[in-house]
Design a protein that fits this description.
Blueprint (H helix, E strand, L loop, with lengths): L2 E5 L4 H15 L19 H4 L3 E8 L2 E10 L5 E8 L8 H11 L3 E7 L4 H10 L4 E6 L5 E9 L1
Parallel strand pairs: 4-5
Antiparallel strand pairs: 1-2, 2-3, 3-4, 5-7, 6-7
Helix pairs in contact: 3-4
Length: about 150
Amino acid sequence: MIELLQVGGDDARLERLMQLYLYEWSGLLPVPIEADARFRYADMAAYEDREGHAAYLFLDGEVPIGFGLVAKHGEGAWRVAELFLIAGARGGGLGADLARRLLATRPGPWTWTVRPERPAALAFWRRAFPTASEAVEVGADGITRTRMHVTVS
């Protein structure tokens, strides 16, 4: 069984997996790479203090195969900031199972958004949480996203 392990934002395994995650995004939209040949996740510092933020590694034994980042979103709600599984761990429902387990760490209302560049991600979230409500919204950056809401007991 895959373990969810809460870690700090400064965990080296999380940073390494984040490089893979951002590399995937770089094929869809501009993700700047820095002089040290690393992508930077702008919000990672928030996960180092764990105040209103939580980072989880998904471990298969001792091997990290993905991560989930969650953050406070308004009064009493949490949001999924990022969810990632390495390519070799995808399929067969593992991602949906891990998404449900991630949200179960904090029962109550949850939200997340899906960008239009990721139609497969929207299909994934619909499978994982078929009762989630959806609304289309335009972010401050002008990007139209699908926002999903679910309450986890």
